[in-house]
């Protein structure tokens, strides 16, 4: 299969008006090869949607996995974010966190389910995110177990507030996570401080497993960059689909 086959992708741009956020929110929807609206498809919802498509090359990976590896076709929804308010929306201490998570569950998912033939069982929805995008995915799943059970966590930014929320949970046996972190992420500076992401991910993994979650956990050579995560995305997708 030549590269050009993978690059023939159907990506639809959508926009919704969010009453919770008080603004428009843009979505990218990848439709698999052979898409047929009378069928039904598993769905991956990605935080940082623009980056998952542009830097993670998730649509190209999906085409290759479906065309070459025989993976069941699936739909991808990338939810775009304004980088200027990303921490406010993705971190549980952010002032837009509640509005964003409500937008996600009460506006974005119903919009997609009205317009695309995605499956509606928690086991057929995957949440994916990098850094704080992984964190908000975990919080979404913990707040909405009736909606979500599977999370792709690429170098999750599991800061102290998130670990504390995690520690207060008693039963997370419904959760299944694919977690990866780069060994060179032990001194990474963000807009809120400098963190050891390796240590934060180890703590999150322990807390999750102690509460019954299933965790496929990996530490590999890598930095807090899409160059690292892009290479790991296919394994993460195959793990769940």
TrEMBL record:
Pfam families named among the record's database cross-references: Esterase (PF00756)
Keywords: Hydrolase
GO MF entry, a single one: hydrolase activity
Hydrolase is among the record's keywords: yes
Gene3D superfamilies: alpha/beta hydrolase (3.40.50.1820)
Protein name: Alpha/beta hydrolase-fold protein
Species the sequence originates in: Paenibacillus mellifer
């Amino acid at each position: 299969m030549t590269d050009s086959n993978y690059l023939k992708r159907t990506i639809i741009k959508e926009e919704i008006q969010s009453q919770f956020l008080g603004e428009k929110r843009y979505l990218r929807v990848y439709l698999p090869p052979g898409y047929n609206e009378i069928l039904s498809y598993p769905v991956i919802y990605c935080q940082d949607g623009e980056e998952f498509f542009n830097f993670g090359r998730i649509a190209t990976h999906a085409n290759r996995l479906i065309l070459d590896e025989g993976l069941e076709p699936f739909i991808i929804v990338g939810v775009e974010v304004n980088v200027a308010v990303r921490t406010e929306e993705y971190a549980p201490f952010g002032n837009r966190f509640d509005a964003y998570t409500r937008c996600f569950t009460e506006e974005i998912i119903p919009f997609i389910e009205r317009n695309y033939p995605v499956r509606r069982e928690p086991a057929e929805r995957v949440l994916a995110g990098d850094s704080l995008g992984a964190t908000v995915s975990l919080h979404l799943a913990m707040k909405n177990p009736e909606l979500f059970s599977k999370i792709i966590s690429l170098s999750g930014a599991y800061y102290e507030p998130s670990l504390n929320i995690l520690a207060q949970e008693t039963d997370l046996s419904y959760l299944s996570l694919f977690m990866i972190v780069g060994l060179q992420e032990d001194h990474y500076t963000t807009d809120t401080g400098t963190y050891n992401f390796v240590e934060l991910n180890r703590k999150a993994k322990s807390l999750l497993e102690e509460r019954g979650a299933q965790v496929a956990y990996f530490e590999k050579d890598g930095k807090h960059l899409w160059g690292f995560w892009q290479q790991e995305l296919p394994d993460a997708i195959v793990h769940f689909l």
